[in-house]
Amino acid sequence: MNSDPKSTIAQGKAILGIEFGSTRIKAVLIDEENKPIAQGSHEWENQLSDGLWTYSTEAIWYGLQDCYADLRANVRKEYDIEIENLAAIGISAMMHGYMPFGKDADILVPFRTWRNTNTGKAAAELSELFVYNIPLRWSISHLYQAILNEEPHVKNIDYLTTLAGYIHWQLTGEKVLGVGDASGMLPIDPATKDYSAEMVEKFDNLVAPKGFPWKLLDIMPKVLVAGEESGKLTAEGAMRLDVSGHLKPGIPFCPPEGDAGTGMVATNAVLQRTGNVSAGTSSFSMIVLEKELSKPYEMIDMVTTPDGSLVAMVHCNNCTSDLNAWVNLFKEYQELLGIPVNMNQVFGLLYNNALNGDTDCGGLISYNYYSGEPITGLEEGRPLFVRSASDKFNLANFMRANLYASVCVLKIGNDILFNDEKVEVDRITGHGGLFKTPGVGQRILASALNSPISVMETAGEGGAWGIALLASFLVNNIKGQSLAGYLNDRVFLGDAGTEIAPTPEDVAGFNAYLENYKRGLAIERAATEAKA
Description:
five-stranded mixed β-sheet; 18 helices
């Protein structure tokens, strides 16, 4: 097989994956052997508008175009060639949220992201109606909350989709969604790999008295599984992606997916009894189940892999933002001393020193709540560091407490799966910013989940690489393999990653910290109520 990147690009055999994360849009170009050969990126931030977290459509399109332009520039610099054609494209983005459009294809209200927690009443009522846990951030919760709020735009909805579904629609003209991302809009029936017909009927009956001109399936994207073609790049779409005009239309797209699904693909965790943990701005764990859980749990979301297998997802709104903020204080101190700053070195020194701390952090507690945290029942967040005069306050314990905080809520949710439901896993893989410093995040997470944690070198490529692999599966799966089979044989053959197992001492220390953490939640709750 030809592995020369320049020839691959020249012959139009390269594959493009683009993922919209919460702080970065990333593009990855891969070759026929699924190896990354070029990247591009664009930094962006959500905005708080009228009390809701959002990104404007202008920011979405500028970000996409700037990310692709960065990729083009890197390709020209590295290979002295222009991207004219591609074998396939995939679009991925942060899941859930609310993007309703009218008949003119204009968005009716600003994009409401996964981060918003204003849908409590809707989520609770739907969970009771469906006898199924419906999280605050799911699209159906946002839709029903808008109905409860009697928002005038609801009657005008012609199409409701996610961020990935929106971009895919605008580039291809197709109103479709990968089953993994669709499972964050409305529950999926594992037997049909489509929206639950029972829940669709229940919802339509619930809102029928409102007299809307639509029924639920009229406005939802069509559900597709991995390997199904979901449209081609239109001439208009080509110009929206590549404003330079070099990219040709007609390129096939795989189904658009959510970041949870691409994380599963990027860590080879789509097979039953495997799992992965993504730990960055937010964190979530995905465990692919052998069977349905015995009952609904408010802390556990039921979603699917990109090929439709049932997944238990524990999603936490907060992870490394507060940890990064503390590390930045040490960066500022280093700058005051006039010492050149290498952030990888700063993180490495602080993280590794944390492992010298007491396993229970000496009594120190950190709450990393930049925003509300549904699993611990908090609608708002206030970052908070708590200690008493008798605690062992030193740098190692301080950093260890902040590292523990980044996975504490994740631990609370997963205890249900492992302790109550007796779910068994053969392998859990970690990826994301928490694992960038080798060995440290792995050891912390292994202590929290009391399970060995693997990290692959390729996991650092992230979700953009994951969606590129799904696009590769669309066009290169000539043997007709399952997604898991394709990943095992064509992508991850011989790459089991580096594994760290928990020690009894670390597990006992984390559990002691967790008990302090739970007792101190009343302090966090009081802080959210006291500070305007």
